[in-house]
C-alpha cells in the first residue's frame, strides 16, 4: 500500500531510486568470479559450452542484447539473442553445446517458458535462468540459476530488475571469460572493483533528475521521439524508447545511429526530437557525425554524454553530462536517465504510471 511508498508518489519512482541498493544486494555474495555463482553445476556446465543463446521479452530482451556485447568481447564466445515469442515458433538450428540463458524478471513469462521448452526439446540442455523470483517456474526449469536481488518490483515498467539483470549478465560474461582463460586475476579484481563502485556512480546519475525533468517537460508536447545509440548503448536507447511508449504513451523508436541515413533521417524535422545516448567510447566520433545529420535537418538533439565529452550545448542541442565514464559498465549508468526521462514525461502527461493501460506486469498467457 501507500505506506511503503515512503517519500515517493509512484512505485516506479521508488524503484528507480532503489537501484543502488538493488545492485549492492545482487553483488552481496559475489566475492570472486567463479562458475559456482550460477549453481552447484556451474563449473561443469559453463566449461562445456561453445556458444550462448539468450531468450527474453520486453525490457529483459534489451538486457540480453547488451550482454551480447559483453560476452563476445570478454569471453570471445558467439552469442545470439532472440525474442522468446519468435524463437519458439522458428525452425532454429540447435546446438547441444549452446548455453541457453533465459532472462526474465518474473520467471513466469509464458513466451520465455515456451521458448526454453523448445530449446530443451531440441536437445539443448545447458540452461541458465537469470531472474528476480527464486520460486518461479523458470528457475525450476533450468539447470543453473542466478537470482537478482532487486526485491519485489511493482511498477509494470521494469527498472531495478533491468539494471540488476545487467549486473548478473556482466558476471556471466566475466565467468565465461574465466572458463576460457581470458580473465587474468588482475582483470578480475579490476572488474570487481568497477562493479562495487556502481552503486555510488548510480547515485550520482540519479542526482541529475532536475535537469532531466526539464527535458521531459519539453518532450511531452511531442508525438514522436527518436532514440539513438551505438554499440552496447544501442540496446539502452531501445530501452529508453520502450519506456517512453509504455508509460508516457509517446511513440518512440530506437535506431542504431549508423542506420539513421538508411531511413529514419527522412522523418527528422523540428517536430521530431532526437535523444542520443552518447557516452565516451570508441564509437563517439561516429555518433557525433550521426548527430550532425540530425542538426542539419533542424532536428532538436537531447544528448546524454559523459563528463569529459566535448559535445557542447547550443540552440538546437542540449547536453546532460553523466558524472563519470564507467567503461564496460556504462550501459548500466546510462539506463537511469532513460528511466527518469520516461517517468517525468509520463508524470507531466498524467498517465497511470505504475499500471499503464493495456499492459500487465507479468504476461503468463501467450
Ligand atoms: C511485460 C512487462 C515488461 C517486461 C516483460 C518481460 O511485458 O510489462 O516490463 O519487461 O513483460 O517480463 P519478464 O518478467 O519476463 O522479465
From TrEMBL:
Homodimer. It comes from Robbsia betulipollinis. Residues 41-182, 215-356 form the SIS domain. One of its GO terms (molecular function) is glutamine-fructose-6-phosphate transaminase (isomerizing) activity. Its EC number is 2.6.1.16. The gene is glmS. This is Glutamine--fructose-6-phosphate aminotransferase [isomerizing]. It is found in: Cytoplasm. Catalyzes the first step in hexosamine metabolism, converting fructose-6P into glucosamine-6P using glutamine as a nitrogen source. The active site is at residue 361. The keyword Repeat applies. The keyword ATP-binding does not apply. It catalyses: D-fructose 6-phosphate + L-glutamine = D-glucosamine 6-phosphate + L-glutamate. Keywords: Aminotransferase, Cytoplasm, Glutamine amidotransferase, Repeat, Transferase.
Amino acid at each position: 500500500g501507500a505506506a511503503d511508498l515512503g517519500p515517493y508518489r509512484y512505485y516506479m519512482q521508488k524503484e528507480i531510486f532503489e537501484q543502488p541498493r538493488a545492485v549492492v544486494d545482487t553483488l552481496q555474495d559475489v566475492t570472486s568470479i567463479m562458475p559456482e555463482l550460477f549453481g552447484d553445476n556451474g563449473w561443469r556446465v559453463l566449461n562445456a559450452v561453445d556458444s550462448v543463446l539468450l531468450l527474453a521479452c520486453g525490457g529483459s530482451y534489451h538486457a540480453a542484447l547488451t550482454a551480447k556485447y559483453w560476452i563476445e568481447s570478454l569471453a570471445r564466445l558467439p552469442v545470439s539473442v532472440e525474442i522468446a515469442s519468435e524463437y519458439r515458433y522458428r525452425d532454429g538450428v540447435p546446438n547441444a553445446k549452446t548455453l541457453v540463458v533465459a532472462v526474465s524478471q518474473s520467471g513466469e513469462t509464458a513466451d520465455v517458458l515456451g521458448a526454453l521448452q523448445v530449446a530443451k526439446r531440441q536437445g539443448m540442455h545447458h540452461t541458465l535462468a537469470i531472474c528476480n523470483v527464486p520460486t518461479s517456474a523458470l528457475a525450476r526449469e533450468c539447470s543453473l540459476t542466478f537470482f537478482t536481488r532487486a526485491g519485489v518490483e511493482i511498477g509494470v515498467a521494469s527498472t531495478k530488475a533491468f539494471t540488476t539483470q545487467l549486473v548478473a549478465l556482466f558476471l556471466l560474461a566475466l565467468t565465461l571469460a574465466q572458463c576460457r582463460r581470458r580473465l587474468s586475476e588482475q582483470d578480475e579484481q579490476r572488474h570487481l572493483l568497477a562493479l562495487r563502485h556502481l552503486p555510488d556512480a548510480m547515485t550520482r546519475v540519479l542526482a541529475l533528475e532536475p535537469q532531466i525533468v526539464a527535458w521531459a517537460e519539453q518532450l511531452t508536447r511531442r508525438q514522436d521521439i527518436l532514440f539513438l545509440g551505438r554499440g552496447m548503448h544501442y540496446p539502452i536507447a531501445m530501452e529508453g524508447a520502450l519506456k517512453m511508449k509504455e508509460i508516457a504513451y509517446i511513440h518512440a523508436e530506437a535506431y542504431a545511429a549508423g542506420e539513421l541515413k538508411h531511413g529514419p533521417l527522412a522523418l527528422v524535422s523540428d517536430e521530431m526530437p532526437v535523444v542520443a545516448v552518447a557516452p565516451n567510447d570508441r564509437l563517439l566520433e561516429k555518433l557525433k557525425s550521426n548527430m550532425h545529420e540530425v542538426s542539419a535537418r533542424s532536428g532538436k538533439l537531447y544528448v546524454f554524454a559523459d563528463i569529459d565529452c566535448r559535445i557542447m550545448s547550443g540552440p538546437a542541442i542540449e547536453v546532460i553530462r553523466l558524472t563519470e565514464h564507467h567503461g564496460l559498465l556504462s550501459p548500466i549508468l546510462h539506463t537511469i536517465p532513460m528511466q527518469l526521462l520516461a517517468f517525468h514525461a509520463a508524470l507531466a502527461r498524467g498517465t497511470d504510471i505504475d499500471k499503464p493501460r493495456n499492459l500487465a506486469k507479468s504476461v503468463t498467457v501467450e
